[in-house]
Specification:
The structure is a single chain. By secondary structure, the chain is α+β, with helices and mostly antiparallel strands. It folds into 2 domains: 171 residues, no CATH class; 156 residues, no CATH class. Helix content is 55%, strand content 16%. It has 13 helices and 12 strands. Helix 2 runs antiparallel to helix 12. The longest helix is centred in the first third of the chain and has 37 residues. The two termini are 25 Å apart.
Length: 370
């Protein structure tokens, strides 16, 4: 426009300030989209990353599972005979074998490992006890420091697990598979899986592939014998079969939120500013300049929404860390950039039709509009 410069930006800001509630709602809508995408995706990626690190922290080189077993141990059944540990131990290159029964605590949604303490502890440098010590009784439970902090537990406290009263005998540093550990025999009694386990963790003498191939030769052909490196590769979020559709749905929902909010706001603004548009056209504004004004307004609202959304996301992440130790919200640079881009994309798409409609008004009809 010939009268642009300071006048243009004053017009833009005055238009936004003239309708503060509607502008605020649009900004909040964009902010919600940014926070929604980042928190949902961040918590999902964080859970996968945390699980990956904890499995790696066990110290095993190889994982043995039954046929068709899930990479998520909590979804597996205890069908492997515990005695298979002796068979695996005979394989060339195998140093240590530890049977594990994985149970999901329905009340807390935590994963509990039923372990043979001696063999599980031998897989790595062992548990790092911050308080207490190993199992002394069948009803003992070892918890990691994050679980203890979340539930305010101390050595000697009684906890209700699987409708049993268990006693906290030790608190260990986190990072070794589960957050709670109980004796293997106790876990088998709870799960009704006498002498059966969910999986075997195996440590090799140093030549992982040699040991893995030797185990494969000893076990039935349909058993799953993976190196830890292969397992961790499968646990990458981009390789999980259900992850991509889930992330796509989150993206679609996020774009839809900002699109609908901005579309409704800008469309209403066009209807309310018909005479204003007529005046601008009478002063010489072109269709492109009118459209540019409305797109610029939606861009400013999107920018404000992005700033508020990012701020809210980091505040919520900090709150979750203090309120629930162990909750991981993984905010990667890629997803931060994607959420910002999606916010502006949704706002742009929402502004296109109102901008096009506004630019097409006839100045005579617009000036005569009441």
């Amino acid at each position: 426009m010939s009268y642009y410069g300071t006048t243009y930006w004053q017009l833009l800001w005055n238009n936004l300030r003239a309708r503060p509630i509607r502008t605020a709602l649009s900004v909040v809508g964009v902010a919600l989209q940014v926070a929604f995408v980042l928190l949902i995706v961040g918590m999902t990626l964080g859970w996968v990353s945390d699980w990956q690190k904890r499995v790696e922290g066990v110290g095993a080189d190889i994982i043995v599972q039954p046929p068709n077993a899930s990479i998520f141990f909590q979804l597996g059944n205890a069908v492997l005979p515990e005695s298979m540990a002796q068979t695996i131990q005979q394989a060339a290159g195998v140093d240590e074998v530890s049977p594990v029964l994985v149970i999901a605590n329905q009340k807390t949604l935590d994963i509990v490992y039923g372990i043979d303490f001696k063999s599980f502890n031998a897989l790595s440098k062992g548990f790092v006890f911050l308080a207490g010590g190993p199992f002394q009784n069948p009803e003992d439970v070892i918890v990691d420091d994050l679980h203890a902090a979340r539930h305010h537990l101390h050595v000697g406290d009684k906890v209700d697990m699987f409708n049993r009263e268990m006693t906290v005998c030790g608190i260990v540093a986190h990072g070794k598979g589960a957050r709670s550990f109980i004796p293997l025999a106790t876990a088998q009694g709870i799960a009704g899986a006498e002498h059966r386990v969910t999986l075997f963790y195996v440590r090799s003498t140093g030549h992982t592939e040699t040991a893995r191939q030797a185990i494969v030769q000893l076990l039935p052909a349909n058993y799953i014998v993976r190196s830890m490196q292969d397992y961790l590769t499968l646990m990458n979020s981009s390789n999980l079969p259900a992850m991509r559709p889930f992330l796509r749905v989150m993206i679609l929902l996020g774009v839809s939120i900002s699109f609908l909010v901005v579309l409704l706001t800008m469309h209403t603004m066009v209807l309310e500013r018909t005479r204003e548009i007529g005046i601008l056209k009478a002063l010489g504004a072109s269709r492109a300049e009118i459209a540019r004004l409305f797109v610029a307004e939606s861009t400013v609202m999107a920018a404000l929404g992005v700033v508020i959304g990012l701020t809210a996301t980091f505040l919520v992440r900090a709150f979750l860390r203090s309120w629930s130790p162990g909750t991981v919200v993984l905010l990667t640079v890629d997803w931060l950039a994607a959420s910002v881009g999606l916010a502006f994309l949704g706002a742009l798409l929402g502004a296109l039709y109102p901008a096009w409609r506004a630019s097409g008004f006839d100045p005579v009809d617009a000036l005569a509009f009441e």
